[in-house]
Design a protein that fits this description.
It is built from 25 helices and four strands. It is mainly α. The strands form two sheets. A two-stranded antiparallel ribbon has the order 1-2. Helix 4 (99-121) packs across helix 21. The chain is globular, with a radius of gyration of 25 Å. This is ABC transporter permease.
C-alpha cells in the first residue's frame, strides 16, 4: 500500500503518542522488576484501577477548574497506595521464594482486582470525558492532529526526565540504582530493603495508575484492559532490557510506531507483529536493547527438595484405585460429572506436561498453552477442512504440536532466566494472535464448531474411557522418561549447567528435547479437549490458560510427579464449583491462590507428605534426600 506524506506523518505521530503512554506504564513495571526481581502480573490491574478511579474522580471534580488533572493525580496516588499495600501484605513474604510462586501470587491479586472492579463499577465500558483545553486539534504539516495526543507525546519524555533526576540526584535514587545492580549487596551495606522495596513498588504502581488515568480520554475503561496492556508492557520491558528505564522508553516508542503503521499496512496481523519483533530482538540481543545479563541473587530453587523415586507396588496400587474410580464413575456420576471428569483428565495431562518442563527440566514457561492450542486447532481444522477421522487427528496433534515446540524450543534454549520465560510468552502470543486474527481459517473469536469424534466414541462414557486410556498411557511414558537417563540428564542440566557440560551433557540439546516432549503431550491434550468440547476457541492458547497450568502445579506441588495430577484435579473442581456458585468467582479463587502460596508453598502433595510422611514414603511419591545420599 502506498503511503502519502500526510498519512505517514499521521501514523508516526499516533505511534509516538501511543508509545509515550505505553512507556509510562512499562517504566513502572521495569522499575519494580529491576529492584525486586518480581515479574508483576498485577501491573496491568493497577493500570486498570487507575482508569476506573480516575473516571470516578473526574466525574465529580470536572466542574472545578483543574479538576480533571487533580483527579488524574489523585488516582495515581491511590493506585500507588494500593500497590504498596499489596507489596507489604503479600509480596514481602515471598522475596526469598522461587520466582514461580511470586508470579502466581501477583496473578492471584489480578483475579481479586478483577472482581472488585466488576463489583464497584460494573461490567459496562465507561467512556471518559474530553480534557478541558485539549479537546481540539492542531495543524501538523496540513494534518489536524488531536491536541491531547500531542500532550501524551510530551508527557512520556517529561516523566523520563523526572525519573532521571530522581535516580541521579537523590540518595533514594542512588539506592534504587544500586539495588538494580546488586540488591544483596545493598542489604549487606545496611540499607533497609523493606522500605526500599515498598517505596519502589508504590512508585511503579503509581506510574501504572497514571498511565491508566491519562489513557481515559482516548479509550474507555473496561475489564479487559489489564491483560491487553500487560502483554504490551512486558514486550516493552523485555525489548528495552529488564530494569532499564531508558531502554523501556526506546522500546515503547518502537512498539507504538509498529502498532500504528501495522494497523493500516497489515490489519490482519496487528496483534502478532509486536511479538514477532520481540522474538527477533531476543534472538539477536538476548538481554534486550539496553539490558544486562541478570545477576544471580540466589541459588536457583530446586523444584524437588526431595528426591523423586520410582516407588514400588504400593504406589501402583494407589494409582490403580484412582483409575478404578474413573472406570466406575459412570455408575456414580451424572452427565455433568462425567464431563467434568473428562476435562479433569485432560488438564491432568496438560499440567503433567508443563510440570515436566518446569520441574525436571527447570524451564519456566509462560506460554505452554501454545502447544495445547496447536493440538486443539490441528484436530479441529483436520475435521472441518479435511474430514479427518478421530484417531488420525488424535495421532497427528502431538506430532504437529511437537514440531511447533521444536521450533519454539530451539529459540528458547538459547536464553535463560526471565528472558527465556518472556520469550515463551511472546511465542505463545504469536499462536494466540494467529488463532484470533486469521478469521478465514480459524474463525477468529467465533471459533471452530462441530468438532466431534467418530460415532463409536461419541458417547460421553466411551469418550471418558478413551481419555482415561490416552492420559494414563501418556503419564506412564512420562514417568518412565523422568527416571530414564534422559530424565536424569535434564535434572543435571537444571541443577548446574556448568557441571552438566563438564560431564559431557549437551545442555541445550537435552533442554530442546524436553521442550519437544512437553509440547507434544500438551498438543495431545489439546486434541482431546477439542473433541470433548466439540469446539475450539483462541482462549485455548491464551496467557490466562498458561497461567492456569502454573496454578495447577502450585496447588498440587512441584516436588513430586503426583503434584500436577492432584493440582489439576483440585483446581478444575474448585474453578467449576465457584463458577456455578457465583458471578464473582475470581476473587475467592485469587484469595485461595495467594493463601496457598503463603501458607502451603509446597502444595497439597507436599503438605500431606509433611503431615503424613510415613504414608508417602511407603507409596514412593516423595522421599527426603538425606545427608550423604548419593542422589
Amino acid at each position: 500500500m502506498h503511503l502519502d506524506a500526510q498519512t505517514f506523518v499521521s501514523l508516526l505521530l499516533n505511534g509516538l503518542a501511543t508509545g509515550s503512554m505505553l512507556f509510562i506504564v512499562a517504566c513502572g513495571l521495569s522499575l519494580i522488576f529491576g529492584v525486586t526481581q518480581i515479574v508483576n502480573f498485577a501491573h496491568g490491574s493497577f493500570y486498570m484501577l487507575g482508569a476506573y478511579i480516575a473516571y470516578s474522580l473526574v466525574s465529580v471534580m470536572m466542574s472545578v477548574p483543574g479538576g480533571f488533572w487533580a483527579g488524574v493525580l489523585v488516582a495515581a496516588v491511590v493506585v500507588g497506595i494500593v500497590g504498596g499495600l499489596v507489596e507489604m501484605t503479600v509480596l514481602r513474604r515471598l522475596y526469598k521464594a522461587p520466582e514461580l510462586l511470586q508470579l502466581l501470587a501477583t496473578f492471584g491479586v489480578v483475579l481479586v482486582v478483577q472482581d472488585v472492579t466488576r463489583y464497584v463499577w460494573g461490567s459496562e465500558d465507561l467512556i471518559g470525558p474530553r480534557v478541558p483545553g485539549l479537546a481540539g486539534s492542531l495543524d501538523f504539516f496540513g494534518i489536524r492532529f488531536p491536541s491531547y495526543n500531542i500532550f501524551l507525546m510530551l508527557l512520556g519524555p517529561a516523566i523520563l526526565g523526572l525519573l532521571w533526576l530522581v535516580f541521579h540526584r537523590t540518595r533514594w535514587g542512588t539506592l534504587v540504582r544500586a539495588a538494580t545492580e546488586d540488591r544483596e549487596m545493598v542489604g549487606v551495606l545496611g540499607v533497609n530493603q523493606r522500605w526500599l522495596f515498598t517505596s519502589v513498588f508504590i512508585l511503579g504502581s503509581a506510574l501504572a495508575g497514571l498511565g491508566g488515568a491519562v489513557q481515559l480520554p482516548r479509550d474507555s475503561a473496561n475489564l479487559g484492559m489489564d491483560f491487553n496492556l500487560l502483554t504490551e508492557a512486558f514486550v516493552v520491558v523485555v525489548i528495552g532490557g529488564l530494569g532499564s528505564i531508558s531502554g523501556a522508553f526506546v522500546a515503547a516508542l518502537l512498539i507504538g510506531v509498529i502498532q500504528s503503521f501495522g494497523t493500516l499496512l497489515m490489519p490482519s496481523m496487528t496483534l502478532v507483529t509486536i511479538f514477532i519483533f520481540m522474538t527477533i530482538v531476543l534472538v539477536f540481543r538476548p538481554y534486550g536493547l539496553a539490558g544486562k545479563k541478570q545477576v544471580q541473587v540466589r541459588e536457583p530453587p530446586r523444584v524437588d527438595e526431595g528426591l523423586m523415586v520410582q516407588g514400588g507396588r504400593e504406589q501402583w496400587v494407589l494409582w490403580g484405585l484412582a483409575a478404578a474410580f474413573v472406570v466406575a464413575s459412570p455408575l456414580l456420576l451424572n452427565g455433568y460429572g462425567i464431563t467434568l471428569l473428562i476435562e479433569t483428565l485432560i488438564f491432568i495431562l496438560f499440567a503433567s506436561s508443563l510440570h515436566f518442563l518446569v520441574g525436571p527440566a527447570g524451564i519456566l514457561s509462560f506460554g505452554h498453552a501454545a502447544y495445547f492450542g496447536i493440538g486443539a486447532y490441528f484436530a479441529a481444522l483436520g475435521v472441518k477442512y479435511f474430514g479427518l477421522p478421530f484417531l488420525p487427528a488424535l495421532i497427528g496433534a502431538p506430532i504437529v504440536a511437537g514440531l511447533g515446540a521444536a521450533l519454539f524450543g530451539w529459540l528458547c534454549v538459547r536464553l535463560s532466566g526471565t528472558y527465556r520465560a518472556m520469550l515463551t510468552l511472546a511465542l505463545a502470543q504469536i499462536v494466540w494472535s494467529v488463532a484470533w486474527q486469521w478469521i478465514s481459517v480459524t474463525g477468529g473469536d467465533n471459533g471452530i464448531l462441530k468438532v466431534w469424534p467418530d460415532a463409536w466414541a461419541h458417547n460421553h462414557v466411551v469418550y471418558l474411557y478413551v481419555t482415561l486410556a490416552v492420559v494414563g498411557m501418556s503419564l506412564i511414558v512420562l514417568r518412565r522418561i523422568v527416571f530414564a537417563p534422559f530424565g536424569y540428564a535434564l535434572r543435571a542440566a537444571r541443577d548446574s549447567s556448568a557441571r552438566a557440560v563438564a560431564i559431557g551433557i549437551e545442555v541445550r540439546r537435552v533442554q530442546w528435547a524436553g521442550f519437544v516432549l512437553a509440547g507434544a503431550l500438551a498438543g495431545l491434550g489439546g486434541a482431546l479437549y477439542a473433541f470433548a468440547k466439540g469446539s475450539v476457541f483462541p482462549d485455548v492458547a491464551s496467557i490466562a490458560f498458561s497461567v492456569d497450568g502454573l496454578v495447577m502445579l502450585l496447588l498440587g506441588g512441584l516436588e513430586s510427579l503426583a503434584g500436577p495430577i492432584v493440582g489439576a484435579a483440585g483446581y478444575h473442581w474448585l474453578l467449576a464449583e465457584l463458577q456455578r456458585t457465583t458471578e464473582y468467582w475470581r476473587a475467592p479463587l485469587g484469595i485461595v491462590i495467594v493463601l496457598a502460596i503463603i501458607f502451603f508453598p509446597r502444595g497439597i502433595v507436599g503438605m500431606i507428605e509433611k503431615l503424613v510422611p510415613h504414608l508417602f514414603r511407603r507409596v514412593g511419591l516423595v522421599r527426603r534426600a538425606s545427608v550423604g545420599d548419593p542422589s
